[in-house]
Each structure stands twice: as structure tokens, then as C-alpha cells.
Predict the structure.
Amino acid sequence: MIRIDGVRRTYRSRGGDVEAVAGVDLTVRAGEIYGVLGRSGAGKSTLLRCVNLLERPDAGTVTVDGVDLSTLREADLRAARQRIGMIHQHFALLSSRTAAGNVAFPLEVMGVPRRQRAARVAELLDLVGLGDRADAYPAQLSGGQKQRVGIARALAGEPKVLLSDEATSALDPETTGSILTLLRDLNQRLGLTILLITHEMEVVKRICDSVAIMTDGRITEAGPVHELLAKPDSALARGIFRLGPPPALDDTTVVDVTVVGDDTLISDLARTHDVDVRILDGAVETLAGGRAGRLRLALPGTAAANAAALDHLRAAAVAVEVHP
């Protein structure tokens, strides 16, 4: 659905060139929620603006729904952007317009007739849970309600793709949760492909199917969340499952086990192999609706003596790392 190939974007200034996006390749599959995670200044926002060509890349191509946007003339690009919704960090609502007026604005620009426009606005406000706030002005809305209006407005043109620029960073945790739940619901009900940028690990944990980690304009790690969690050296896994350094224990095998959706692993291991398993450390999280965890286990005896138990773990777990 979205394919980014070799995209570069450099800002030139008297102090020297700054390469905000440094040769990024990224593929977002149709119907998934893809997160780009990174600290402030990593280049995330610039990358997102390159997707709808609000920022024109200095090099590389951006293809959305099979169309290379960089080849389009301005009129065709404007039409293509109507199929790409955008949610902003600070809502970007027109203060002089009601909630309904803000949602109607892009429909007016598209030339949608008044009666059809009114029906579409009512449908969208109901969809985001604000059917009873159509006549409220932004100053009369909470932060979460403002963002719901922003989401409804982004959906006005019936886009296939939704871009989210730190959509929850200005919200409190409870409101963040409700907005993320709404985005996941819209993703599933409308078949939306969502590309979001965030600096919050909680956003990735809550709704992302895939993720890319961005540092200094480059993607350092990317892939489906469950595949990255299976890699012991994954930065994402280290960020989600914060385990300390493994202890050195005499006559003991220390092993880190990553599991997804299995809460019987330890009891099955102990029962099958009659081994006294100790949990030294661990973290369990709910990720995009499913549970995953990384446990640090201690098995009495050497790795050779525990070969059968380790084989059991490798067969049942997503990833197993035996510490020397």
C-alpha cells in the first residue's frame, strides 16, 4: 500500500546541511498499522510529510496504492492527497468553525454538494463518537474530542491511507488510550492502512502491527512486531521487555525465553521434564491485542544436562537465548 524507496531529504542552512531523512526504505502492507518510533529530531515527521509530498524528497520515490506520487503533476497530486488522510499532533482545527464545520471543510474544497456534505459530516461524527457535539466549537471541546474531530475530518475524503503525526502526544494517558482504541477500530472496520509516527513505546505496544525504529534520519530496525520481539538483540524487544544483565550462577543454566500468548510454558516444562524452574526476571505486555512476554529462567545444572528441557523451550517459545 505504501512503499518508500531510498528517500532522502536534506535541509540547507548557513550552519551546514542537515540530512533529516537519509536513504529510507519502508514498506507498509495494506490494512496494517505501521509505527515509526524514534526520539525528537530523528526525522520521523519529515518522513511522514514525504509520504504525501508535503515535503518533496531530494531523492527516492514514494508509492501509495500503486501510484508514484513524485511523478504526478500538481493537480493530480492534489487529487491523490484526497485519498490520504492526515491527523495532526495539535489538532489543527479552525477555531471559527464548529466540529461539523471543521469536518465539512475538506468536502467543501472537493466540491461535494451541500446536502451530500451534511449527510457525510453527520456520519463521520457518529463514527468517532461525537454525533452530539456537531455544533460545538473547538474551544468547547476537550483535547480528546478535538482529536476525534481531526480524525473525522481526515476521513472525509474516504481515504485508503491515514497518516498520524504524533496524534496522541498532547493527550493524557486515559485519552490516549481511547484515541488508540478508536484508530484500531477504524483500521478494522474501514480497512484503513495507518502509518503513524510516535516517540511513545506505549503507542507501539497498544496498536502497531509493524514498526520501524528511526535514529538520525535512518531506519535501524524494521519489521512485524512479533518478529522483532523474537530477536534477542532487537532494540524494540529491549525497550518493551526491560531485563537487566543476566546473573552468573554456579551449576545453573540461565535462559531468556520470549513467548506470545502462552501462559502454560513454565508449568508444562516443569511437569514434562521434572525440572525445578525458577523465574529470575520477566516482563509481560499486551501488544496489539495479544499478550507477549520475556522471562529469565534458571534451570539447575549445565546446558548439556538441560538439553531436553531447552529443546522443549525452543519448540514452545518464540525465541530462546541461553546465557553462557
